[in-house]
Every structure is written in C-alpha cells, then in structure tokens.
Amino acid sequence: MLARTYDTAPLVMQSILEAAESQTVEEDHDNNNDNKPNKQTNKLTRASTTTTVQSQQQKGIPESIVARHLEGDGTLDAFKQMSPEQQQVFARTHLQSLKQVSRVVRMVGSVFLLMLGTGYVVLQVMAADHELAQLLLGFLFLGFCFFFVFLYVSFRRLVNAMSDWCYEMPVFRLAVSVAQSDVARSVFLFFFLPLVPVVFSLSWANQMIRRCRGLYKTIPAAASKPASTGLDSRSLSKSGVDIEDIDLAINPQNSCLTERVMSQVRTMQSWNWLDIILNLYIIGICMVMFTLSPRLLNVLLAWLNSALANLNFFVVILSVLCVGVLCFMLPPVPGVPVYVFAGIVIPQTCPYGFEIGCVVAIGVGFVLKTLACAVQQKCIGEVMGMNIKIRRQVGVNKPFIRAIEAVLRRQGTGMLWLLLLLLLLLLLLILLLLLLLLFFAVVGDVFVAIVAVIVVLGMSTGKVAILCGGPDWPSFVQLVVVRIQDNNNNKSNINNNNNNHNNKKQLLLLLFILLLFLLLSFILSPKCIEGPLPCWREF
C-alpha cells in the first residue's frame, strides 16, 4: 500500500492510512455500482465531512501542529499523495486522538492539584487532631507514589512521541519549567535523598553482575545508543542544558554504575548546586516550623485560656482579636486553632450565657478574618510589592497570574438570585429547626451569611475559589504584590464607581436579612421553646 513504501512512518500511522485507503476503496466500489444521484449524495457527504473537519480544527488543534507531526514522522509526502477522502479520514482521526490526549493531560493535572489541595487540608487538620492528620498524610503519600509510578510507566512513550504537541500547551510548558527549576529539584532531593544510597547500591550490584556474566564482551559499549539514556538533543535544548556539557558517550564497562544511573549522575552534575543546597536548608527549616508550630500554638492558646479566665469579657474579646491577628501574620500558623481558641474562650467567659457567647464568637471570628486579610494586604503585600525582585520572583506578567486577574475581575450574580436563594435557605432552616430541634441555628446563620456576602458583593465561583480555597497568607499577599486593582482599565473603574451606590443598598439589605435570621434562630431554638434564654431572664 501507499504507506508501506515509507519506512519512516510509525506503525500507528500505517494502520490509520490503511484504514483510510480501505474505506476509500469501498466508497469507489459503491460509486461504480450506483447511479448519478448517488454521486451527488457522495459529494454532499464529502462537503459535510470537510465542514466537520474544519470545525474540529477550529475548536481543537491547529493545522500547523498536524503538519508538524506529519513532517516529523516523515509521512508528509505520503499524506500529499493521498486522495481528499483519505486526508479527511486521517485528519479527523488524528484530531480525535489529540483531543483524547489533551483530556488525559488535563485529568492528570487535575489529580495533581487535588493532591496538593488535600495536602493543605491535612496540614490544617494537623493542628486539631495530629493522629488523624498523620493517617491522612500517609494515605496521601502512598496514593501520590502509586499515581506517579502509573503515570511514568503509562505515559512515558506517549510524552516522548507527542513532545512537540505537548510543548504547544501552556500547561505542559508551565509544568516543565516548574519541574526544571532549582526549587523543584530541591524539593525532590529533600524527600528522596535518603533513597540515593539504596539506588546506588542496587545499580552497583547490577553492574557487577553484568561484568561477571560478560555481557559487555558480547555487546560492545559502542553499540549502546545514546538515546537510551533519555538525553536526546531536543530534550536537552528545551531544558536549557548545553549538549557540550554532558558526555553522552558513556562507557558502562569502565564505570561502577549502570548506564542509566550514570547518565542521571552526569545530568545532575550540571545543576546549580549552590542554590539547591541553600533551598534544601530553607525547606528543612520550613518543615520543622510547619511541624512544630501547630503543637506550640496549642500550648500557647491553652495558657492564654487559663490567663484570660478571670478577666473582663470585653478585654477577652480584645485579647482574642490581637492574638488572632498576630497568629495570622505568621505563614506557618493555620487558622483552625485560632477559631477553636475563640470558640472556647469567648463562650466560657460570656456573662450573658453560652448562646450569646457563641454568636459573639462567630462575630469575632468574622472580624478577625477580615482584619487579618486587610493587615496582610496593607502591611505586608503592599510593602513587598514595591520590591522589583519580589515582583519578578512572583511573575506578575506570567499567563498564570494574568488568568487569576481575569477570574477576579468577573462579576457575580444579581439581586434576584440573592432573594430566591435566601428564601430557599429560610424555608430550609425553619424546617430543620422545627423537625430536628437543633440546639443552635448558628451554623445556618453562618452559611446564610457566607452565601449572602458572596452573592451581594458580586463574587463569582472562581473568585470565591481563589480567595477562600487558597491559603490565607500567600493568596492575599500575592494579590497585592501583583497589584491587580492598580491594573484595572478605565472602563472597570467607571463601572466600579457606578456600582458603589448599589453596593451600599445591598449591604444594608444584607444586614437586615442577617438580623432577621439571627432573631428567628433564637426564637425557634429548643432553649427558647423550653423557656426564656439565660440572658433574657436577667431582664
């Protein structure tokens, strides 16, 4: 067949060409047996297939990438000699394969992001329950190891074959740049450096067994391909490593390690070890801080609980605010112990009863959160944003930061959805209070407040995911370093000025709705049904 004359074409390309040619042969056979109306219908089907291929090319991969693949595989001349029907079938199949690969890459990236988010949640849980956090961390580490091995075994040849197309994807280029940075190499060495003696021992034993068996006498060292080391010129040029600095002609007969391990050692010799060793010390100090800070924080908060037991209630509230703001200024300190401390101390020392103390604790937590974010943005982020080195390190002009900026500029839903959502939550809250007789409706109040604030202030789903899902200190500090608000155009500034008046009305409506829900929660609570609240008995 046509593709068999080209020895440089891969087996997959040959099978696709054979299928396309067989399909066109069957169509020609059918056209010879049919009449002219059938030819007209075939023309219509050809036109429809061309339009579908063009639409797929517009939605999916550009034509230049397909042409680059054909040229790289040595099948471009064969593709030109094919009939239009064969070219359409081949292009459609090729585009579908590329779309499937893109879905796989996105799925893998999503799993990695999910693992990172789960690790952050485990660090937050570590302050509350250390044993549970250790258990979750162990399962997460095992899952990450098995998933990494699965990816390496399954997609190694696929990435090598589709490297040109993968480098057209911004996500893949970002992942490669991050993986080849000194920080990523430092993190890799920090966690896997204890396994290096084991790897070297196994490689040395394997090399000794090969020498004893005389394998290098039957297979000369010159017959070994440099490509087997995984250090081809294309990957080295893209990784920023000079080919002259690495000796690919490794003679395994004269080395104590195997050829694969020796090639990795030669590659690691070109790393910037001065920065890597400095990063190793920094990562070690950060790991010690993140491990010890939650335990020390629990001890400090327990001592503060006993110290604030005999003080005035308003002094306790002010002390909790000050201690919470100071804790939020430290990056390794999680927010869960601060909220737990406020929820324990304030209701215990409240002279108006436990219920009022819980409501005050919720209000103090909200004020503490907003105050800490404001201090992080104004006192830390704005000062760091004036430094050019920090802005360059953050990458203010990178596509990732610009994408975050675009998400944060999106507008949320309107007031109509707010009223419908609040009405639904009101009915649900009343139903839960009447049927289940909850001891407090504070959880419902907090949920309604969060949803109302999100909708009223015009926050979209992506904006909430960035501001609430990310860590507090890095998220708010980095947003001010990037100066997203200063980069707004004139049109967005005019729209913000026009919406200030509407936002004031919406905030007043929000406060009225929150007070209404708070009143309903106390009226419908079981304590109020059994008798008046303790704070009301005094009056």
The beta-strand count equals 0
Instruction: Based on Cα principal axes, name the global outline.
Output: extended
> Biggest β-sheet, characterized?
none
- How confident overall, as mean pLDDT? 65
Instruction: List SSEs in N-to-C order.
Output: HHHHHHHHHHHHHHHHHHHHHHHHHH
**Percent helix:** over 70%
Count of DSSP helices? 26
User: End-to-end span in angstroms?
Assistant: 98 Å
Strand % is under 5%
Regions with little confidence, pLDDT below 50 for 5+ residues: 1-17, 23-62, 221-248, 434-446, 485-501, 524-539
The structural domain count equals 4
Rg of Cα set:
32 Å
Description:
The protein is mainly α and 539 residues long. Residues 1-17, 23-62, 221-248, 434-446, 485-501 and 524-539 have low confidence and may be disordered. The chain has helices at 11-33, 36-59, 63-73, 76-81, 84-126, 130-161, 163-166, 170-179, 182-192, 196-213, 215-218, 233-239, 259-268, 273-307, 313-328, 336-349, 354-385, 388-394, 399-408, 415-436, 442-456, 461-469, 472-482, 490-523, 526-530, 534-538. It folds into four domains: 1-179, no CATH class; 193-271, no CATH class; 292-386, no CATH class; 403-539, no CATH class. Residues 22-55 are annotated as: Disordered. It comes from Polarella glacialis.
